[in-house]
Amino acid sequence: MSTEDEDKFKWKGVPMTSEAHLIDTSLFRRAVLIPVFLGVTLMIVAALNSSNKLTPCFEIECFGTFFNLFKFQFAVMGLAIPLGALVASHHRSMQSAAQIKTQLNQNIFSNYIDHKKLFEQFFRDNDPLRLNDIKNRQIWEIYDRVFPGAPYGDLLPNAALKPFMDKVAEQFNEIVEKTKSDLHEDSLALTTSSIPRLWVYANITVSNFLGLPRPVDAAAINRDPVNLLRSYADFTLAVANGLQDCANFHKFYDNYSALSQIESDYSDLKNDLESLQAVNDARCKILNAIGNATEASGELNRKDEYAARSFSNRLKEFTDEQNPRDYISPENARLVFENYIPESHRKVFLQHIPAAWQIELPKNTETTTKGD
Question: What is the 8-class DSSP label of residue 150?
Fold first, then answer.
């Protein structure tokens, strides 16, 4: 501000604010000076137009004449007192309001910090979303999504939680229904199913809302649909339950109706996947063993002179009932052979199957042998 501007504000005063001194404000100066200036002006006009010649006099009668002649002008100048008092009262009100606002902002900030700390402690103690080893930054991001109004004093859960839960329930239900129609013991491959696409979209929905990266590969679910769908179901239920717990962690607000639908679909999906688990495990183990022992053409790996023995031994390990982790029943071995082993690899598979499986595959063995 230039010297000229400073002089201007010095005489005119500064705008009325809670920080400004009362006597420096332009409104206070006007409230006091205008009545005084107006009264003095009227006094001069009255003196100039008086029929009596006015001369200096300090007698009692002169004072009486003076006050009688200029009583109106004094009344006008006296307005400076109530007007100044009104401005002063207004200024005090502004200062009080500013102090209250400052205190309120301090309380809001203090409550926000305390609320956030309590949420972090709750999250670490309970891990409601089952995320394991989550970092502080991720907890804060989830907090900001669940309580977006907390920095401004609004501790109510995000209104977007309900439509988000509805969206999660809708996507989960769609995958559950598709699993019932597309996934069977003889059709675990999902190359023509929309499940991989729906699975990717569902993961993106949750990741975007929570701000947690969950990179997914649609091809992965084709390799092991049962276990990946089970993991997805567990995660979806954990997110639904966890977000409701997060929203109500310090005070109960609401139960989300979508949660009951998710729990019902979760139970159905778990039962369906449980019935497919044994065949899926057999499929993954046998195809993995075939992939390790053979080339793309279906022949044994020429670079490994022990490929035949290793392959036979690995298949034999699958028949040991004392080892439930690797055991594959003859019935499941037959299902894998009939539905999942490529034609190019069936010959080498049948040449190395253990005796325990030949009960289920005698005709296939004979047919293949004769065809050779």
Answer: G
